[in-house]
Amino acid sequence: MTKQKPQHRTVRGQLLLLNNQTQSTDQIKQTIQNTATLSKLPPNTWHTSPNRSFSFNDTQDTFSIDRIEISKQETANKTRTEVEKQVVDLARTLKVSFSQTTLSSQSDPIVTPNWLVGSSPHVDATGGPGGRPVAPDSASLQSGSEVAPWHFTLPPALTKTPPEQRGAGVDVFILDTAPKQTDIDDAYQRWHATNPLLASLLQPGGPLQLHTLPVVEDHLDQDVDYELPDHPYKMPDHGLFVAGIIHTIAPKAILHLVRVLNDYGIGSYESILRGLQFVHQNVSGAKVLVNASLCFDLAQPDAAWLKHWSNFDPFWQGWHPDEIKHMAQPLDRTCQMLHRNGQHIVAAAGNDREGLNSQLPPARFPAACPNVLGVGALRRDNTPASYSNVSDLPRGDGLATFGGHSNATTDMTNATDGMLGVYIGTYPDGGDNTSGWARWAGTSFATPIITGALAVLVADGYSVANATQQLRNSAPGGGKQTVLGEVFPVKQGEPWS
Asked: Side by side, which strands form the sheet with 131-134?
């Protein structure tokens, strides 16, 4: 079935409710039913479903997430824009209603639209990476030095452990797209003799483990049946490409590829939260990293940017940063909980900058969350990539590193200076894949460089906080700042100079 192009920002007719569990479900439902917005609707136009509820808890916090749905009968004859407005208005109305009916703002439930999520957002829903994947220039696959074209040369401070032992004992969870296991098996048979990185990553019993969550699969299939409007091509290899970057840097790390985005690179607030719940419930300890090369289509809570962005996307006119922060709280609290329990998240800043000249978009969520390390993208010469957002929010908290070079006029990755990685599908231009390689560009691919480097240091005994500081100090002569954030210098396919 052909995917729709979502000229909107939310899953049709769906909201998420965070309940601090200080109120009963019945109390919350009654409050919802009594809101001005819903009281005008026919009976049974909204519902919650028990199997759509999931929870988070640790010694400091407990909360559950429920999906609220406006019935398909109610939304069937309305445009997507009308349904989105209804959902957003309902979320805003419920915020006021809950504040009036609960004893303390500390215990107020939080309601937010079920925002769309993608490999990087853009005006009118999600946009995609900084450039489309392309077949590598054949000459660039020939090693002209002692460094293989796909290898990364790290700063000397990170090279104390032998390359083949780096990342030992670290679990890395990659929330992303994922190919089918049969496609991975076929690719291994086709290219393992000629593509060393693919052979090492995809070998039977190797470091890569695929995870699909049944409730997420159902949600992606039934509710998130969309493609990226500016990138209408399948990209199940996006997560595989990310995994290959991490594996190159930290080959002994165990990689868990968790499918939370559909094959076109789109998921939802719910699919990401469920992916984070999977991490939270399945691992513990200090040697766990989460790579999130994705962004929410919820605007950044920055007043100056909101004013600027509203000129391009009138939807955001009249929004206040505090209102956006409120709707980001389910994500923020989930990230806080993982952080407390030793599960640290590294996230892509976003690729919104192309065509904005000197305007620097701030980091998207989840990179903008306080306990998440945001990553911006640089070109090979460590100058800012033309597509990259600022690495984190507030500015300066994140890192920036190589993310590949794209050609702005063609929306294609540069076939020589893009990031080189594992790619097993056909290219977006329809070209046949004869090598198992592609070059790609985006903050999506700068992010796993930082994740892999952290895995190296965490495996060597550093805490994540100390490891992050090591990355900040790794540039020769100390830290180096760009407008996107502090530089973590690496070279791909080149020796250190």
From this structure: 406-407, 412-413, 131-134, 437-441, 419-422
Beta strand residue intervals within 90-233, DSSP E: 110-118, 131-134, 152-153, 171-176, 208-211
Mean pLDDT of 211-237: 88
The helices-and-strands tally (H runs, E runs) of the chain is 14, 23
End-to-end CA distance of the chain: 51
Q: Is 144 left (phi over 0), alpha (psi -120 to 50) or beta?
A: alpha
High-pLDDT (> 70) share of the chain, %: 84
Contacts of 41 (CB under 8 A, 6+ apart): 70, 74
Q: Which two tokens stand for residue 193?
A: 């003799």
Enumerate residues 6+ apart whose C-beta is below 8 A from 60: 337, 340
How far apart are the C-alpha atoms of 207 and 254, rounded to whole Å?
5
Contacts of 185 (CB under 8 A, 6+ apart): none
Residue 13 class from Cβ within 10 Å (0-12 exposed, 13-18 middle, 19+ buried)? buried
**pTM of the entire structure?**
0.94
The H or E element spanning position 289 is strand 288-292
List the domains of the chain with CATH numbers: 10-118 (3.30.70), 131-492 (3.40.50.200)
Tell me the per-residue pLDDT of 244-255, one tens digit each, with 9 for 90 and over: 999 999 999 999
